[in-house]
């Protein structure tokens, strides 16, 4: 048998295919003509992703980007896809589009995975659905965060919050400080918190820097980025905020959280007190609610730069005297850490220690008055945040050290170290009970 050489084989192949060329040419145009080119796939990475708990079995996501689809699933269930809509009001820091999507029908306490848009090689992120009834959980609280352009310590505090891995973060007002910089600072803040806000819910409180300088920034940039549970309007709220969302409340793991508004007018807090009283009453009567916690931006008790608000103090004191489950209030505004002894049954904690510049007085001790007031149990000037471990029987509150800011600190502590702690049992902390301070000898001045 004779083998065909490489050149002869190629010639034979060309001869065989030549006869088919005409038929193929006639067929291929007709075949190709029946198909349209595939549309380009968006590879945009969504920005400013965060979510809030909006119901016992629901969360609501907000983000910036053109993609309007969100897929979510558990390890034991197939994916569901929801379509986003535009928020109300529309934020003004960028043209958008801003997206908002409701995820409901969640399995209580389950871990969910989700993807937004058609990112290149998307990596699913997870979040935890609200638990059903009383259950252990961890939440965090901190105020006066800002963004790294004007508050460089914010990046470290945000990273510390990621490491703490709370179910949610109560952001206690003065979120971006865009009124002191520019509108892009709003977007920078919501981009920077994504280190934790894709997994932990971002539960906001409005501060004075969100509304007092309306020509430079206003509440549309914040109300438009959040859906809030049981949201309500307050008298005196700026018109450039629209649609209520001035205060709200929600239940989580056997704790009722009640957010109070900014004092837009002299009538704002008295109006809140009247409308929120049934919320306190219902929580006090509900056996599944073990604790009531309030949160807002302004302090009722503070020896920091801004001091306490007498009108707010009187209102919260009355609630503390009437409702035994009400044991803790959290606030920012003064850029210090301060924990009070129980005041009318309630421990008040000022935690304006996010990224905002620490505040101090013109004294050797850095406080306006070097002698703490009688209501103070412990105070310190240092960046950080509050971590609360909640169980059906107690709230264990820890002040966690963040980055140092010498010479503005009045204590030395290492990032992540516990600066101060207190355990509040069911029924409240006795006025005579004073837990040991973690760092009794760390005063710098």
Intertermini distance: 103 Å
Largest sheet: 7 strands, mixed
Strand order of the largest sheet: 11-12-13-14-16-15-17
Any idea what the CATH architecture of the domain at 132-425 is? 4-Layer Sandwich
Low-confidence stretches: 1-36, 440-445
Counting DSSP E segments of at least 2 residues, the number of strands comes to 20
Q: How is the CATH topology of the domain at 132-425 named?
A: Purple Acid Phosphatase, chain A, domain 2
Strand residues, percent: 25-35%
Helical coverage, percent range = 10-25%
Give the helix tally.
8
Mean pLDDT: 89
CATH homologous superfamily caption of the domain at 132-425: Metallo-dependent phosphatases
CATH class of the domain at 132-425: Alpha Beta
Order of helices and strands: HHEEEEEEEEHEHHEHEEHEHEEEEEEE
State the secondary-structure class.
alpha+beta
Tell me the overall shape.
globular
Describe the structure in your own words.
- With 445 residues, the protein is an alpha+beta fold.
- It has a domain at 132-425: Metallo-dependent phosphatases (Purple Acid Phosphatase, chain A, domain 2, 4-Layer Sandwich), CATH 3.60.21.10.
- It has helices at residues 6-18, 21-33, 154-164, 184-192, 194-197, 220-223, 268-285, 310-322, and strands at residues 47-55, 58-64, 69-73, 80-83, 98-103, 111-116, 125-128, 137-142, 168-172, 201-205, 248-252, 255-259, 291-295, 326-331, 337-340, 347-351, 376-380, 384-390, 394-401, 418-425.
- The strands form four sheets. The chain has a seven-stranded mixed sheet, with helices on one face. The chain has a six-stranded mixed sheet with strand order 10-9-8-18-19-20, with helices on one face. Strands 4-3-6-7 form a four-stranded antiparallel sheet, with no helix packed on it.
- A hairpin with an 8-residue loop joins strand 6 (111-116) and strand 7 (125-128).
- The termini are far apart.
- Mean pLDDT is 89; it is low at 1-36 and 440-445.
């Amino acid at each position: 048998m004779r083998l065909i050489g490489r050149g002869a084989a190629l010639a034979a192949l060309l001869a065989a295919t030549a006869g088919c060329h005409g038929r193929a040419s006639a067929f291929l145009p007709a075949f190709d003509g029946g198909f349209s080119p595939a549309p380009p796939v968006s590879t945009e990475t969504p920005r400013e992703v965060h979510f809030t708990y909006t119901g016992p079995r629901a969360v609501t996501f907000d983000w910036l980007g053109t993609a309007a689809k969100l897929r979510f699933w558990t390890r034991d269930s197939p994916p569901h896809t929801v379509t986003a809509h535009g928020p109300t009001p529309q934020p003004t820091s960028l043209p958008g589009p801003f997206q908002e999507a409701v995820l409901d029908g969640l399995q209580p306490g389950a871990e969910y995975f989700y993807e937004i848009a058609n990112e290149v090689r998307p990596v699913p992120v997870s979040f935890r659905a609200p638990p059903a009834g009383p259950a252990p959980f961890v939440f965090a609280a901190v105020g006066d965060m800002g963004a790294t352009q004007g508050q460089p310590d914010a990046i470290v505090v945000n990273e510390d919050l990621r490491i703490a891995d709370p179910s949610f973060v109560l952001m206690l007002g003065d979120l971006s400080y865009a009124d002191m910089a520019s509108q892009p600072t709003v977007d920078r803040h919501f981009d920077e918190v994504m280190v934790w806000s894709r997994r932990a819910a971002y539960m906001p409180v409005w501060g004075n820097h969100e509304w007092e300088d309306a020509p430079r920034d206003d509440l549309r940039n914040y109300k438009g980025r959040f859906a809030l549970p049981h949201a309500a309007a307050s008298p005196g709220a700026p018109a450039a905020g629209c649609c209520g969302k001035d205060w709200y409340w929600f239940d989580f793991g056997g704790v009722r959280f009640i957010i109070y508004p900014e004092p837009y007018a002299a009538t704002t807090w008295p109006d809140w007190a009247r409308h929120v009283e049934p919320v306190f009453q219902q929580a006090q009567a509900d056996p599944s609610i073990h604790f009531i916690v309030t949160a807002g931006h302004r302090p009722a008790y503070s020896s920091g730069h801004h001091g306490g608000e007498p009108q707010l103090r009187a209102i919260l004191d009355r609630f503390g005297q009437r409702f035994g489950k009400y044991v803790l209030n959290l606030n920012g505004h003064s850029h210090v850490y301060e924990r009070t002894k129980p005041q009318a049954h309630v421990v008040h904690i000022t935690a304006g220690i996010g990224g905002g510049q620490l505040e101090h007085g013109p004294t050797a001790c850095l406080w306006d008055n070097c002698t703490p007031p009688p209501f103070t149990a412990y105070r310190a000037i240092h960046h950080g945040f509050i971590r609360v471990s909640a169980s059906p029987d107690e709230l264990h509150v820890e002040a966690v050290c963040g980055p140092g800011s010498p010479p503005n600190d009045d204590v030395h502590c290492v990032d992540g170290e516990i600066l101060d702690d207190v355990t509040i049992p069911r029924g409240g902390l006795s006025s005579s009970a004073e837990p040991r301070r973690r760092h009794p000898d760390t005063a710098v001045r």
